[in-house]
From TrEMBL:
It comes from Cyprinus carpio (Common carp). Belongs to the SEC23/SEC24 family. SEC24 subfamily. One of its GO terms (cellular component) is COPII vesicle coat. This is SEC24 homolog B, COPII coat complex component. CDD domains: Sec24-like.
Length: 775
C-alpha cells in the first residue's frame, strides 16, 4: 500500500473570465509514500560520468525559453553524490520572480508573502509533471519599517470577486479599472480620484493602494460586528503546590510590575486576575476599595462568576490595587498543600468573563489538569521515548480544549499558554488544538488584538487564506502571463482601531518544465512540507509522515530525471535550485517533531510540532538547518560597514563535526537558541578578549552571555551576533558550550549531516534516495 498525503486547498489562478474555472477533484497526490529503511550504508565516493551541457538539459526539459542567466544557473545539473560542499557561503535570498522592473518594485516582499514556486505552472498537468508542491506561506504581521495607512470613506474592491485594488490592476481610463484576479471592469469612485499623498486630483493610478503591495486600511463600521473594544488582559495563574515550588509566581508578579506601564493599549485598557488550584479564585479590584478582595468558588462543576465590572477593571483607575495584588500574590500561597489543578473550570470562567469584550487570556500552568472539565491523565510511557515505531498520543485526549478554543475564537478571545513543568503536561491536548484551531498569528513586537481572515462572498472565486496553504490550479493559464494572490486580514489593534491589512503577490505564469524547476523556492517548499508532515503525523501516523517526506524528494528528482531521460548520467542529479532539497528533508527527519529512535519526551515533540506549524519561514529554517560559523578567526575581509560599525561575514559551514576543530570557537544559530562551542585548544586570546577568562580551564560550564569588553575581538564578535539578531522579534537563549561539558550533546544534535545510531548521515541519505529512485 502506498502512502498518500491529501492536504489541498482549492484556489484559482487568474482566469480570463469570472466563471471560466472548471472544477477538479478535491485531491492532490503531492507526496506519495514508500518504505524508509533504517539500514545503515557505508560507501566511498567513486568516479562518475561527465555531465551534459546546459543546452542539452534545457532541450530535454522543454527548452529554457529565453530565461535569464540567473535562471540558467538554477538549472545547472548538480551531482549530489559528487559535489559535497553544496552549502552557499551565506544564506541565499529567495528566488526573484522573473517580472518586469516596474512590477518587481511594487511586488510583495517574500518575507511577508512567499510562494513555493516563483514561476507558476500554466496548467495542473505541468504542475503534476514537476512533482513539486504549489503553496503559499504568509507572515501577515511581520514588522514593517514603512506601511502605508489609508483613511478613506470608500475602500475600493472588485464588485465581482471582492479583490482589494492593488498595484497589479489595470486602468482602462481615469474612470474604469480592471481587476487582476477576475478581469471584471469596475468604476473608479469619485473619492479615489484624489491622491492624499500628492494632494492632486485626477491620477487614481498614483494612489498609495496602487503603488504598494502591502497596505493597511482604517476600516469603516461596515467591517465591524460590534464597536471596537478596549484592550483587555486576563491572567490565569496556577497556584497549586507545584506552582509555588517552581517559584514562577514571584518572577511573574515582579515582571508584570516592572512592565505594567508598557502593556499595549490606551486609557480604556482593562485587566483582571484569576488563580486556581482545586478551587477557582477571583479578585475584586474595583476602584475605591482599600485593598483587593479575594473571592473563592469551590463549585468547579458550575463556576459562578461574580460581578464582571469588579473583576476586569480599568488599569488606569485601579492601578494601585493591581500593584497591591501583584505584591501580595507570591506570599498568599506559600504554605499551600493543594496538589490538584482545576485548569478546565478556570478556563471556562475566563471565557465567561471575556466574552462581552474579547481580549487576551494568559495562562500559566505547572501540571496536568486533574479536576473538573478537561481533566487529563498521563499518557506517556517513558520506555517508548526512543521507539523506532509509531509514536502514540500526538493528538488530544479530549475535545474539551478544542471546543473551548473554537468558542474563544468566536468571541475574539486569544489564549496564550505557558507550561512551566518538567513533568508530562499533555501539550497535545492543552496546546496543539489551540494552536491549530484558533485564528492566531505568529508573535510580533506589535501584537494584533483580534484577527481573522477576510472571507469573500463568492467562495468559488477566492478562499480565505491561512498561514500556510496548499493549492491546485483550477483553470488553464494559457491566456495569461501573470498570476496574482491576495490576503486580507481584518483586526483590531490594542488601541481599539479596526484595520485591514492587505498583501498582494504577483508571479509569472510559465509553460516550460525547465522554468518551473528554475523558480522552485526550496526553503518555502521545505516549510510547507514540514507543515503538511505535522498534519499527517496526527491524522495518520509519524511513520507515514516520514515516508511522505522522503518520497517528496524521490518524486521530484525522479521527475527531473525522467523529463531529461535522454541525458541521464550516473549519480544523483538535481537542478541547482533544488540541490539543498535532500539536505533539508534529512534535517526535518532529525527534528524532535519527526525523529524516531532518539529519546524524545512527548511534550517536547509536540512543542516542536507547534513551532513548525506556527513560526515564520526564517525562524523555521534556522530551527531545521541552523547556521554554523567559526568566529575565533573573523577578520574585516569582506565585512559589512553599517552605521560606523564593522560587521564580519564569516562563511556558513556544513553541519558536520568534520568542520569543527579543537583550536576554534564555533557559533551555532538555531533561531530560538544560540550555542558557542569552544574547543579545548581554542586561542587563549579569543577566550580572554571575548569571554573574559584567562584560559579554557577557567571557563565556567554554565555561561549564558558574552560580556561587553573593550577589545577589538569582543567588539567584532558582539557586532556580528547583534547583526544576526537585529531583524528578530525576540532574542534567543545563549549558551557557551565547552568541548568536555555534558551540555555539548545539545550542540552536536544539530549537526544534521552526521550519522547517529538511529539516522542516516547526509551521504547515506543520498544513497538511500538513489536506491528508492531505482525501484
Amino acid at each position: 500500500m502506498r502512502t498518500v498525503l491529501n492536504h489541498t486547498c482549492l484556489l484559482p489562478v487568474s482566469s480570463t473570465t469570472t466563471d471560466s474555472a472548471s472544477p477538479v477533484p478535491n485531491s492532490y497526490e503531492s507526496l506519495e509514500g514508500g518504505g524508509y529503511s533504517g539500514t545503515s550504508l557505508r560507501c566511498s565516493l567513486r568516479h562518475l560520468n561527465p555531465f551534459p551541457s546546459l543546452s542539452e538539459l534545457s532541450s530535454a526539459l522543454g527548452g529554457l525559453g529565453g530565461v535569464s542567466e540567473l535562471e540558467a544557473e538554477t538549472l545547472r545539473p548538480v551531482n549530489l553524490l559528487q559535489e559535497r560542499n553544496i552549502l552557499p557561503p551565506k544564506r541565499a535570498p529567495p528566488p526573484e520572480p522573473n517580472l518586469s522592473n516596474d512590477l518587481r518594485k511594487v511586488n510583495c516582499s517574500p518575507d511577508t508573502f512567499r510562494c513555493t514556486l516563483t514561476n507558476i505552472p500554466q496548467t495542473q498537468a505541468l504542475l503534476n509533471k514537476a512533482r513539486l508542491p504549489l503553496g503559499l506561506l504568509l507572515h501577515p504581521f511581520r514588522d514593517l519599517t514603512q506601511l502605508p495607512v489609508i483613511t478613506s470613506n470608500t475602500i475600493v474592491r472588485c464588485r465581482s470577486c471582492r479583490t482589494y485594488i492593488n498595484p497589479f490592476v489595470s486602468f482602462l481610463d481615469q474612470r474604469r479599472w480592471k481587476c487582476n484576479l477576475c478581469y471584471r471592469v469596475n468604476d473608479v469612485p469619485d473619492e479615489f480620484m484624489y491622491n492624499p499623498v500628492t494632494r492632486s486630483y485626477g491620477e487614481p493610478h498614483k494612489r498609495p493602494e496602487v503603488q504598494n503591495s502591502t497596505v493597511e486600511f482604517i476600516a469603516s463600521s461596515d467591517y465591524m460586528l460590534r464597536p471596537p473594544q478596549p484592550a483587555v488582559y486576563l491572567f490565569l495563574l496556577d497556584v497549586s503546590h507545584s506552582a509555588v515550588e517552581s517559584g514562577y509566581l514571584n518572577v511573574f508578579c515582579q515582571s508584570l510590575l516592572d512592565n505594567l506601564e508598557k502593556l499595549p493599549g490606551d486609557t480604556r485598557t482593562h485587566i483582571g486576575f484569576v488563580t486556581f488550584d482545586s478551587t477557582v479564585h477571583f479578585y475584586n479590584l474595583q476602584e475605591g476599595l482599600s485593598q483587593p478582595q479575594m473571592l473563592v468558588v469551590s463549585d468547579i462543576d458550575d463556576v459562578f462568576i461574580p460581578t464582571h465590572d469588579s473583576l476586569l477593571v480599568n488599569l488606569k483607575e485601579s492601578k494601585e490595587l493591581v500593584k497591591d495584588l501583584l505584591n501580595a500574590l507570591p506570599g498568599m500561597f506559600t504554605h499551600t498543600r493543594e496538589t490538584q489543578s482545576a485548569l478546565g473550570p478556570a478556563l471556562q470562567a475566563a471565557y465567561k468573563l471575556m466574552s462581552p469584550t474579547g481580549g487576551r487570556v494568559t495562562v500559566f500552568q505547572t501540571q496536568l489538569p486533574t479536576l473538573g472539565a478537561g481533566l487529563l491523565q498521563s499518557r506517556e510511557d517513558p520506555n517508548l521515548r526512543s521507539s523506532t515505531k509509531n509514536v502514540l498520543h500526538l493528538g488530544p485526549a479530549t475535545d474539551f480544549y478544542k471546543k473551548l478554543a473554537l468558542d474563544c475564537s468566536g468571541q475574539q478571545i486569544g489564549v496564550d499558554l505557558f507550561l512551566l513543568s518538567s513533568q508530562y503536561s499533555d501539550l497535545a491536548s492543552l496546546g496543539f488544538t489551540l494552536a491549530r484551531e484558533s485564528k492566531s498569528v505568529e508573535r510580533t513586537k506589535k501584537l494584533p488584538w483580534k484577527v481573522w481572515m477576510d472571507k469573500p462572498v463568492d467562495q468559488s472565486e477566492k478562499v480565505s487564506l491561512e498561514r500556510d496553504m496548499k493549492m491546485q490550479i483550477l483553470v488553464n493559464g494559457t491566456d495569461t502571463s501573470l498570476a496574482c494572490f491576495q490576503a486580507a486580514l481584518l483586526y483590531t489593534s490594542s488601541k481599539g482601531k479596526r484595520r485591514i491589512r492587505v498583501h498582494t503577490l504577483c508571479l509569472p505564469v510559465v509553460s516550460q518544465l525547465s522554468e518551473v524547476f528554475a523558480g522552485a523556492d526550496i526553503q518555502a517548499i521545505s516549510c510547507l512540507l514540514a507543515n503538511m508532515a505535522i498534519d499527517r503525523s496526527i491524522s495518520s501516523s509519524l511513520s507515514d509522515a516520514r515516508d511522505a517526506l522522503v518520497n517528496a524528494v524521490v518524486d521530484c528528482l525522479t521527475a527531473y530525471r525522467a523529463n531529461g531521460s535522454n541525458i541521464q548520467p550516473s549519480g544523483l542529479i538535481a537542478p541547482a535550485a533544488l540541490r539543498l532539497f535532500p539536505l533539508y528533508v534529512l534535517a526535518l527527519l532529525k527534528q524532535k517533531a519527526l525523529r524516531t529512535g532518539t529519546s524524545t519526551r512527548l511534550d517536547e515533540r509536540v512543542f516542536s510540532m507547534c513551532e513548525l506549524k506556527s513560526q515564520p519561514l526564517q525562524q523555521i529554517m534556522r530551527m531545521v538547518h541552523p547556521d554554523l560559523y567559526r568566529i575565533d578567526n573573523m577578520t574585516e575581509q569582506a565585512a559589512l560597514h553599517l552605521n560606523d560599525s564593522v560587521i564580519p561575514q564569516p562563511p556558513l559551514l556544513q553541519l558536520t563535526a568534520e568542520k569543527l576543530t579543537r583550536e576554534g570557537a564555533f557559533l551555532l544559530d538555531c533561531g530560538s537558541v544560540m550555542y558557542l562551542w569552544v574547543g579545548k585548544c581554542c586561542n587563549e586570546t579569543f577566550i580572554r578578549d571575548v569571554l573574559g577568562f584567562q584560559n579554557y580551564a577557567s571557563l565556567p560550564s554554565n555561561m549564558t552571555e558574552i560580556p561587553e569588553l573593550q577589545t577589538t575581538y569582543s567588539e567584532r564578535t558582539r557586532a556580528f551576533i547583534s547583526w544576526l539578531l537585529e531583524s528578530r522579534t525576540f532574542h534567543p537563549a545563549f549558551h557557551v558550550v565547552k568541548d568536555d561539558a555534558s551540555t555539548k550533546t545539545s550542540f552536536f544534535q544539530h549537526l544534521v549531516e552526521d550519522r547517529t545510531e538511529s539516522a542516516f548521515s547526509y551521504y547515506e541519505f543520498l544513497l538511500h534516495i538513489q536506491q528508492q529512485m531505482s525501484k
